[in-house]
Amino acid sequence: MSKKVMKVMVKTLACVAALQSVLSLAVACGNRPGAGEEIDESKTQLFIANFNGGFGDQWLKNDVIPRFEADYANYKGAGGKVGVQIIVDNSKDNGTKTLTSLSTSRDEIYFTENVTYYDFVSSGNLLDITDVVTETLSEFGESESIEDKMSEDQVEYFNHGGKYYAIPHYEGLYGITYDVDLFEEELLYFAKNKNNGNAGFLISDTDEKSAGPDGIYNTVDTPSYDDGLPATYDEFYSLCERMEDVGVVPVSWTGQYQKYIMHLATALQTAYEGKEQMMLNYNLDGMATTLVDSINNDGEVSFMEPTEINNTNGYLLNKQAGRYYALSFIDQIINNNWYYSLSFNNAQSHTNAQEDFLYGRFSSKKDTIGMLVEGIWWENEADGIFKDMSVTYTEARAGRHSRRFGFMPLPKAPGQELGKPTFIDYLYSAAFISAKIAPEKVDLAKDFLRYINTDQSLVNFTKITSTPKALQYEISESDAKDLSYYAKNVMRLREMADIVYPMSDNEIINTALSSFMSENRWYTVVNGTTYNVISTTMRDNKIRAKQYFEGLAKYSSKNQWDTAYSKFFNQ
Amino acid sequence: MKNNFREKTRRKDIIFFALMMAIPIIQLCVFYIAVNVNSVLLSFKDYSIETGNYEIVWFDNFKKVFSDFFGESDVLRNALKNSLIVSSFILLVGLSLGLLFSYSIFKKCWGHEFYKIMLFMPSILSSVVMAMMFNYFVERALPEMLNEFFNLKMEGLLSNPDTTFSTLVFYTIWVGFGGSMLLYVGAMNNIDESMIEAGKLDGTNSITEFIYIVFPSIYSTFIVFLTTGLVGIFMQQMNLYSFFGGTAKISLYTLGYYLYRQTQAATFSEYPYLAAMGIVFTLIAVPLTLGVKAFFEKIGPTAEEVR
After folding, report:
1. B134 to chain A: nearest residue by CA?
2. Cβ contact (<8 Å) for B245 and A257?
3. Which helix (H) or strand (E) holds B37?
4. Residue A351, class by beta-carbon neighbours within 10 Å (0-12 exposed, 13-18 middle, 19+ buried)?
5. Which of B16, B20, B74 is nearest residue A528 as measured by Cβ atoms?
6. pLDDT at B120
7. CA A84 to CA A69: how far, in whole Å?
8. Are A112 and A49 in contact (CB under 8 A)?
9. Is A87 helix (H, G, I), strand (E, B) or coil?
10. Which residue of B has its CA nearest to A344?
11. 3-state secondary structure A508-524
């Protein structure tokens, strides 16, 4: 080969290599197209970033978007465009990952989780949407504003210096889901008559059920969905024993993500502490009345005097009794082996756990499982499994709207009075508009955000996802017919319950928010060694609840608190 | 006229070369130099959530790093211990086996095709896919097979606390083979045939050939992997994030995983502390790496000695 030809070849190869280098940059830094979607140049586009986790994207693609595009078919945009095209960019980015990409992404409206609100606002990347939130939705025939649909806690949190930059999106409650059909079939409900010779369980399906954790007997007018459910920890343990007796595995969770147990622990702590005491963990402002002084060998707790909590002594909240009771609850499940065989298997993903929970009642090759530790979005996340099962076992038997599941109000800890449940929404989910949106599209984006928070859109969201949006809205009787049993159950419980939104304007909390998030709040020190995963620590290291609890205060000691947060002490 | 033509051609070549080099240099400047300079500057700052601004706090973040290292919590000390253990295995076992397998492939020993496939496969497949497949194999397939064929009840290797760490070390070494073997085999193939022939004439066998001819010839390549292995002490994640996400047990933490995990979950206010931690690691890793490199270069064979 001649020198000249070689030279040309080398130059060509070098050009190809350089081009590849540039293209890889472009791919890495460029925008993700909505899957298979072509841009319609005759219309104005709105680009939406959606965190495509358990809540999915059907609520957007199958409801809001078609309706909005139809209602705005004659919208006159810049450059003579008519109509709107909404493109959804699904991703699993959230939190700081989303924040750092805001200024370069093509997405204009965001629906995501782990929004560390104060970081997002101070970055200057969020559009001021005060008008969106505070003006009534009159153009949609409503007399309320989005702000009217928010709770007081949410208003206090999202209202930043008199302005709004984001609004709550969906609600991420966490706890235990149970199989209603199984409970009825195996008579796993508690009877009103505790001394019926059947360990307090129903003897027949016509027996009257116990009042459940709220202490109120269910009526047609006041359905509570908790009658017959374990009201106390002891009843829950009896339930697990009864389940074992009838060949049912009591509890299952994903083996791959043991943080689900940490979320359950936080939910149990919330259930014990109640709203006001639980909020101390997030506002560091108030009187703590449940701090533990000591625990005797029988597990009986004696309490400290009520203690004023502020920025200087937030570490004391590691002594909240709710933490101890949560740990003791999990301790019992693990030490009595009341869990599914794959609940510590690292290849058992959350969807595998859902699948085994659903198939267990139908397949002879799988264990029947009574309860699943999950977030309320699990039914939507398992939609594909329901569809597959409908094909195999028929829609009438196995379909999502045929099977009945319930979200269990968590039982009361020893010494706790029966009463309404308290849940915690720990996902920090929010919706906002990027500040870099083109000025001519601002009004359209604001319209879309308002549209998505109309009552109709909120109700449709619940119909599709079986979960609530984190706003106040009602579901009519006619709309309720389209909800799955689980969705009705969740919405009713939500109505009855106190919801803790772990948000405040406290600087310590907002500066180090990741340290206060659910899976990072359970670090403990036992015999000089630090542990962080409750379930594996109890199972593998044989550490019991009392030791684990006492270690929480050792890990988050006064020393450590002072070192980390002393600069905030005078605020 | 001929000179003008040559001058013109040379100028064109230079322009072409400059344009081709511009792209990687710009990439280096933006994605390496600028990022690291920003990181260094960040380590001396503190972020105010109220104003959204950073302010200089000098060495406060560094003090906190050292305080956390030597303080009450053993998280970082445990992570350092694990990092040292994993890196020791990679350096001792991984490097040795890498050389052995590379030499087997070079000599086309029995089974060399098998080695090629099994050891290169992790480098070809996506790391996420590899981790998933390995996870399912050691957690589900292996216990099922042992139960089915040998009636042995076994917990998954990653779920069993007695085998988790060793399984992760094994996986880390295995997936690291591909890159090193590619370079080792390439270096071995570049050895002058006449040297191998001369060795054979002198009566070398496979072992002596490796010791006296092959290894000295690829010594510079070996140094490269030795030094990158040392640098990896502070970066090695042991693939913890691939297997456990953000909730691996503390007993498994390495410094690399700790830093990555904290960065994933951090708010803007927490970045300066993490940047300071990265700088501390760099300040330890750089002299260590340079020192070890210089030492091994000094004691190793020179190019002349090899010839």
Report:
1. A347
2. yes
3. helix B35-42
4. middle
5. B74
6. 82
7. 6
8. yes
9. strand
10. B159
11. HHHHCHHHHCHHHCCCE
* Residues ≥6 apart with Cβ < 8 Å to B256: B83, B232, B234, B235, B236, B237, B238
Residue type present at position A270: T
How far, in Å, are A416, B286, B296, B302 from residue B292 at the CA level? 63, 10, 6, 17
Which H/E stretch holds residue A436?
none
Chain A residues near residue B139 by CB distance under 8 angstroms: 345-348
Interface of B with A (CB under 8 A): 16, 19-20, 23-24, 27, 47-52, 64, 67, 71-75, 78, 135-136, 139-140, 155-156, 158-159, 161, 243-247, 249-251, 262, 264-270
A25 reaches B (C-beta below 8 A): yes
Structural tokens at position A208? 């009257």
Q: What is the DSSP letter of A413?
A: P
Q: B64–A563: do the CB atoms touch at under 8 Å?
A: yes
Rounded distance between C-alpha atoms, residue A252 and residue A515, angstroms: 27
User: What count of other Cβ atoms lies within 10 Å of the Cβ of residue A359?
Assistant: 20
How far is Cα A400 from Cα A382, in angstroms, rounded to an integer? 9
Tokens 């014990």 sit at which residue?
A272
Per-residue DSSP letters for B229-292? HHHTTTT--TTHHHHHTT---GGG--HHHHHHHHHHH--GGGHHHHHHHHHHHHHHHHHHHHHH
DSSP string, A445-463: HHHHHHHTTSHHHHHHHHH
User: How many other CB atoms are found less than 10 A from the CB of residue A542?
Assistant: 9
C-alpha dist (Å) from residue B183 to A321, A402, B98, B130, B179: 59, 60, 10, 22, 7
In chain B, the residue whose alpha carbon lies closest to the alpha carbon of A255 is B159
- DSSP letter string over B88-156? HHIIIIIHHHHHHHHHHHHTT-TTHHHHHHHHHHHHHS-HHHHHHHHHHIIIIIHHHHHHHHH------
Two tokens at A316?
Answer: 């004391």
Residue where the block lists tokens 């190809």: A16
CB spacing of B52 vs A262 below 8 angstroms: no
Question: What are B55's strand-pairing partners?
Answer: B46
Residue A26: exposure state from Cβ atoms within 10 A (0-12, 13-18, ≥19): exposed
Measured CA to CA, the distance from residue A72 to residue A139 in angstroms comes to 13
Strand A286-288 to A307-309 pairing: antiparallel
Size of interface A-B (CB pairs under 8 A): 128
Q: Which H/E stretch holds residue A64? A: none
Residue contact B268–A122, C-beta within 8 A: yes
Strands A430-433 and A167-168: antiparallel
Can you read off the two tokens belonging to residue A338? 């009341």
- One pLDDT digit (tens) per residue for chain A, 571 residues: 567 777 777 777 777 776 776 676 665 555 454 556 789 999 999 999 999 999 999 999 999 999 999 999 999 999 999 999 999 999 888 888 898 889 889 999 999 999 989 889 988 999 999 999 999 999 999 999 999 999 998 999 999 889 999 999 999 999 999 999 999 999 999 999 999 999 999 999 899 999 999 998 886 666 668 999 999 999 999 999 999 999 999 999 999 999 999 999 999 999 999 999 999 999 999 999 999 999 998 889 999 999 999 999 999 999 999 999 999 999 999 999 999 999 999 999 999 999 999 999 999 899 999 999 999 999 999 999 999 999 999 999 999 999 999 999 999 999 999 999 999 998 999 999 999 999 999 999 999 999 999 999 999 999 999 999 999 999 999 999 999 999 999 999 998 899 999 988 898 998 888 888 888 899 999 999 999 999 999 999 999 999 999 999 999 999 889 988 988 887 5
Task: Mark out the alpha helices in A113-258 (DSSP H runs).
Answer: 117-122, 130-134, 152-158, 180-185, 233-245
Q: State how far residue B157 is from chain A, nearest Cα, in angstroms.
A: 9
